[in-house]
Amino acid sequence: MHELSIAMSIVDAALEEAQRRGVQVSAVHLRLGAFSGVVKDALLFSYEMACQDTPLQGTRLVVEDVPVVIFCAKCQQQRTLNSVQLFACPECNEPTMDIRQGQELEVFALEVLDDTEDGVHHDMQKSEVPE
Hints:
It is a single chain. The protein is α+β, with helices and mostly antiparallel strands. The chain folds into 2 domains: 2-66 and 104-128, hypothetical protein PF0899 fold, CATH 3.30.2320.50; 68-101, no CATH class. It has helices at 2-21, 40-51; strands at residues 24-33, 60-66, 69-72, 77-80, 99-101, 105-113, 120-128. A hairpin with a 4-residue loop joins strand 3 and strand 4. Helix 1 (2-21) crosses helix 2 (40-51). It is elongated and about 50 Å long. The termini are close together.
């Protein structure tokens, strides 16, 4: 299950950033493409395991699902695929492998605790996760 090694990389990156900034993380926000090759439920389970006995124990992994978007040369438009099983334009059925979106696996924000009125600060920090 490669999701565990990915979860461990996410935890390592979040811990490094939190330590660098001197903050306590409450949630890690991740963009996950439908064509990334990562099973979301397995990643969520693995994240909990990877956080055990670290300062991130008890934090949440918030996953933003990203659909697969292709470019259709015939229509000259970007189109969202209905299924990752068929790489063809959903409008004209023209086959294509020109993927524009959907392979993402990136940490894009850390939600951190601070001394503001609501106690939460959204700290934007994009980070690619190694596979």
